[in-house]
Amino acid sequence: MLSRAASSASRGLAPALACLGSRQKHSLPDLPYDYGALEPHINAQIMQLHHSKHHAAYVNNLNITEEKYREALAKGELLEAIKRDFGSFDKFKEKLTAVSAGVQGSGWGWLGFNKEQGRLQIAACPNQDPLQGTTGLIPLLGIDVWEHAYYLQYKNVRPDYLKAIWNVINWENVTERYVACKK
């Protein structure tokens, strides 16, 4: 019985690894039978313990591992390009924040990809001017600095908004855009 279970688990691993790109978490499946169904050979208490504690821990650890893997992907190739083109992530963050803070009135701060040079660049666009149409850069990350994006919470203190925005950037999406535009 254990060898069949082990075989089933290894076959089930491939679909689990294939879904790494999705954000849906795994959940503990219900058993197709009652905990007491294997009595008297295996009692209900053992089945409940193994299912609700041990199996649940495996599912939880799989979710944690996949999240760490997604974070590592986002930091891998893109992070290397950021270090190459800006010196470090901190220097990149400082520069994009400064460019975004310097937009007069309304507009956007951008991280874009210069396909001709194969490099990342930072730019700002006033108002609704599109990044690619005005600079030729392929948009990877845009920071909206129109007042409507932050005024209700940050009032006219754009630097506080720009400090906070780094906590909600979807690096997985930025990485996907970076990888796609390099092709």
Global outline: elongated
**Number of extended strands:** 3
Largest β-sheet summary? 3 strands, antiparallel
Summed over residues and divided by their number, the pLDDT gives a mean of 84
Order of helices and strands: HHHHEEHEHHH
> Largest sheet, order of strands side by side?
2-1-3
**Sheet/helix structural class:** alpha+beta
Uncertain segments are 1-22
Q: How many alpha or pi helices?
A: 8
Q: Share of helix among residues?
A: 40-55%
Instruction: Give the termini distance in whole angstroms.
Output: 48 Å
Radius of gyration: 24 Å
Sheet-strand content, in percent, reads 5-15%
What does this structure look like?
InterPro entries: Fe/Mn_Superoxide_Dismutase, Mn/Fe_SOD, Mn/Fe_SOD_BS, Mn/Fe_SOD_C, Mn/Fe_SOD_N_sf, SOD_C_sf. Homotetramer. Its EC number is 1.15.1.1. There is one protein chain. The chain is built from eight helices and three strands, in the order ααααββαβααα. The protein is α+β, with helices and mostly antiparallel strands and 183 residues long. The protein has a three-stranded antiparallel sheet. Helix 2 (44-75) packs across helix 8 (171-181). The longest helix has 32 residues, at 44-75. It is elongated and about 75 Å long.
